[in-house]
Amino acid sequence: MRRAIVFGATGGIGQAICTELAQSGWSLYLHCHTKWQEACQLSQKLMQQYPEQDFIPIRLSFLAENSDLSKFVQDLLPLNAAVFAQGITDYHFVNGQEMNQVDDMIKVNLTTPIKLAGLLEPLLTKNDFSRIVFLGSVYGKQASALEAVYSATKAGLTAFSQGYAREVASANLTVNVVAPGAVDTAMNAMISAEDMSKVKEEIPAGRLARGSDVSYWVNVLLDKRSSYLTGQTIYVSGGWLI
């Protein structure tokens, strides 16, 4: 049985990823932090649709201490893949951001995923193939004003994946980043309708991405046949900012 853990499973993109992977035959851990009820509901829905697969809701704060991260990983069943779809942003000028918010953004988006990747590695490499996919951002390539720290965390994921992929390639573990452009999710609800309309006008494809536009590429990267693609960042942006 192929099993993946999807971090941030209750988010807009996370839910799309869970749905697509379930359709492809994956059993899943559905991770959340605060949205436990949503994780349980999504798990139950997928179990009804795919009764021969397992769907297990699981909770972890990405602000947790190192010892809590280690314990979390120790309690997991065997895994073939880990997908990091969690993330937070803060739409402010740098000099107007709270220092604690900067710390939290770096920890949730970059340092905790890096730590978890290292902790998960022995579990993943027990299999004949395994996968790690991080959700980056087009802003990791062309950083955005008012989201400078967020952009830095996403650029960090790209750099980390390039280096880490070289470390684990011989163990049949691939490490890649799927980097969306503007996606129609709750994270972008903080942007005014006027500003969002301007963004849409800049996108050559003429629309925001849907969750399924992103989940498709995650599914492709988790396929056993994608073993020769590693250390890459795939920009799913409709032609915007690339």
TrEMBL record:
InterPro entries: NAD(P)-bd_dom_sf, Sc_DH/Rdtase_CS, SDR, SDR_fam. Pfam families: adh_short (PF00106). Belongs to the short-chain dehydrogenases/reductases (SDR) family. This is SDR family oxidoreductase. It comes from Lactobacillus panisapium. The lineage of its organism: Bacteria, Bacillati, Bacillota, Bacilli, Lactobacillales.
